[in-house]
Write a structure and sequence with these properties.
The protein has 82 residues and is mainly α. It has a single domain, classed as Homeodomain-like (Arc Repressor Mutant, subunit A, Orthogonal Bundle), CATH 1.10.10.60. It has helices spanning 3-18, 26-45, 50-57, 61-70. The model is unreliable at 76-82 (pLDDT under 50).
């Protein structure tokens, strides 16, 4: 199953659970959650090394660090994210 198909199905289940409840700025909330998951995976797989995680994702180190701060992600103290 492709990542897109997996996300599509899980998102459908999530939206069904809302039962029609409106969430302000739903698109922004969803995109932040996706960013958070991607950055967490990259940081965990790199042992908290921001430069290595950034390289893995094809991002600039400063961009990853800025996104991590914005999303309030934590990492080991040696990584310099916070």
């Amino acid at each position: 199953m492709s990542l897109e198909e997996l996300l599509y199905k899980r998102l459908g289940s999530f939206l069904d659970q809302l039962g029609g409840q409106k969430i302000p700025d739903l698109y922004r909330v969803l995109m932040e959650q996706v960013d958070r998951a991607v950055l967490r995976q990259a940081l965990e797989r790199s042992g908290g090394q921001v430069g290595q995680a950034a390289g893995f994702l094809g991002l600039d180190r400063n961009t990853l660090a800025r996104k991590a701060r914005k999303l309030k992600l934590t990492s080991p103290p040696s990584s310099g994210v916070e």
